[in-house]
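Researcher: Re-running this chain for the archive, since the previous output was lost when a drive failed. Same request as before.
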Amino acid sequence: MKIPQNHKCSGPVASRISRRSVVQLGGGVLGGLGLSQLLEAQTVSANSERFSKNSVDDPAVIFVWLPGGPPHMETYDLKPNAPAEYRGQFHPIRTNVAGIEVCELLPQHAKIADKYNLIRSCHHEFADHGGGHKRFLTGRKPKTPTGFVNDAPMVGSVASKFLDSRPNPSGLCNYIVLGNGRVNNVDTFSFGSAYLGNETHPFRVSADPNSDKFKVQNLSLASGLFEERVGDRANLMRGFDTVRRQIEKNDFGRSIDTFNDRALTMITSQKAREAFDLSKEKESLRNRFGRHEWGQRAILARRLVEAGVPWVTVVMENPYVSGISMPKYGTYNWDSHAVNCHLFKDAVVRLPVYDQVISAMIEDLYERGLNRRVMLVVTGEFGRTPRLSTQVGSQTKISQPGRDHWPRAMSMLVSGGGMRTGQVIGSTNAKGEEPKDRPLTPNDLWASVYKHLGINPELSFPDHAGRPMPILPFGESIHELDPVA
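Model: Regenerated structure tokens:
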């Protein structure tokens, strides 16, 4: 991996920059430095009342997002006794916890079920991808059931707003998203911050960390190009002033002063660069996660929380990358309509990749003693229809099985956070159609996540009209996820 010779959000000055590189900031910042993203860092003044008591120092969240909606009846909630048109082709297997079963394509999950919890009874009412993303990721019922532009802030932006007053010695931003090029637009997955403002958008990294040429574009102004110490601050700030004039034309002026300082510290932080340096990891561990985009992004997520980043989102959308070819029966995300893919053939390739990465993430957190400080949440926006459908595939041109959108039942995995693990929380009925007991909503999950971070969910922030908007309009933390003493 090539460590970018450039970038940052705060920290000690330990590098050298050429005068020419600094002066060129005005014209090249949106490309080399990525200030359009740096301007979407976070800013908020300290307020001790923002936080509730949390016994964990520096709590963090790794949020794995599975866009498209994973099939709950092919992963964590199989129904082997359901009618054939519901149950599908795969069989459940026992895990190392009595009574917990997962799909036969998840054997690594089966070995470590004592280290995670499965939630099987989460549900909501929005079956469109746009509405499902917005409903799940904001904790609010969206004004429109379609479209991906948020009218309320994504939970990561909310956390960023309230966590910004907690110092990060690495100088990294406190909210980072890792994924392919689709993450560069915050509206692709409803990651927008709505009335919280662009300054709470995530810092996005879309390069392939499995590539030998991996380079965090936004870090490219750091070490090697620095021929003189950044003590020549005046020259550097003049470069940012050039950008200021460009940005003020796009209504970013109100945040530019903050981001001038943030960008300066971020591009000069050795710790920030080191957090992205996967060459510091053992080859055996990198292989354990998988030498592909999903696996290496998962390692980066752990390195970032170790460096002090409190919220890292990892988008695991397309497994057919890094040398894994997409067959005609596969699809790039988890949207397993019959017209998109052959549900079962796609799963035979997709789920082993997923199994490898998620199980490695869990084991890694425990082995490093991060299982109390870091909460891992793995989910998509909804489940899939319990009843199978068939349709001619757009690529295969033959009839094949699939499942459609289904928000009335979904499964997710949660680990770490100091919680008691080896639990199944809630259940669905015999056909996997809806919660049978312990019905939960996305808001209950977020209430638990905020509780872990020490954020008081009763607090509010103003919307565009100045009206106070609560962090969560409803929902209670899931007591099974509470940390144990």
